[in-house]
From TrEMBL:
Coiled coil: none
Keyword terms, alphabetized: Methyltransferase, Transferase
Sequence ranges assigned to domain Methyltransferase in this UniProt record: 66-105
InterPro entries: Methyltransf_25, SAM-dependent_MTases_sf
Pfam family, one: Methyltransf_25
GO terms assigned for molecular function: methyltransferase activity
Name of the protein in question: Class I SAM-dependent methyltransferase
Keyword tRNA processing: no
Keyword Methyltransferase among record annotations: yes
Organism domain of life: Bacteria
Organism, scientific name: Frankia umida
Protein's GO biological process: methylation
Length: 223
């Protein structure tokens, strides 16, 4: 997960500040509040080694890989150790610092801004709920497609069967503090196909592993 890039000017601590706090203080428990109530954000797992299910993403990456919303960099660092050229990008300075310490190449960048090697990435990873970045998954997938090489692939983690695709205002909570609301989104495995088709992508594979779901999307011929 990456911190929200855009937050409305309403009451509350900026969500990015709370995400930074949770990254800096291992004992701080981070929560995300959305339409289904409050759920934990497993920052402690993201700071460590690859977690169950990550092997689906790691094994799929064979060429230059862009990890969007890399957080503390566990995936980008693991790919680097495997000899796969990888770059993690995140808008949170603390996350980028941790990613570099973990051995990843990482830059503080917004995926919707300039990104190095645009049009040359073989794989783009959207893991840990990062398909929700910006609260507009169609826009995010369209942007990811523009970053891909001609025969590249997007590897997106999605919600399980029966989970709806929706956009909603969310908040982060940690140490008694609550963030200002920000736009986020979730996409279910049942909805990723139609969503991808709307931006010229097709789903070529779906894998379930360790209670997680991963979809591979590739540009449609002629789209």
């Amino acid at each position: 997960m990456t911190a929200p890039a855009v937050e409305p000017a309403t009451g509350g601590v900026p969500a990015g500040h709370l995400y930074e706090l949770a990254l800096r203080v291992p004992a701080a428990r981070l929560w995300a509040r959305g339409p289904d109530g409050r759920r934990p954000v497993p920052v402690d797992l993201w700071r460590g080694e690859p977690v169950p299910g990550d092997e689906v993403l790691l094994c799929a990456c064979q060429g230059p890989t862009l990890d969007v919303g890399c957080g503390p960099g566990r995936l980008a660092a693991a790919l680097t150790r495997r000899g796969v050229p990888a770059l993690g990008i995140d808008i949170t300075a603390g996350a980028v610092t941790l990613a570099r310490r973990a051995g990843a190449r990482a830059l503080r960048l917004d995926v919707f801004g300039p990104v190095p090697d645009t049009g040359r990435w073989q794989e783009i990873i959207l893991a840990d709920g990062n398909i929700g970045i910006g609260g507009d998954p169609g826009r995010l997938l369209r942007r990811a497609r523009a970053l891909l090489a001609g025969r590249g692939r997007i590897l997106a983690e999605v919600e399980g069967p029966g989970r709806p695709t929706r956009v909603y205002p969310a908040r982060l909570e940690v140490a008694g503090l609550t963030s200002a609301p920000f736009r986020w989104a979730t996409v279910g495995v049942d909805g990723i196909g139609p969503l991808g088709a709307s931006v010229g992508l097709r789903v070529t594979a779906v894998t379930a592993r360790a209670g997680r779901y991963f979809a591979v999307l590739e540009p449609r011929a002629g789209a």
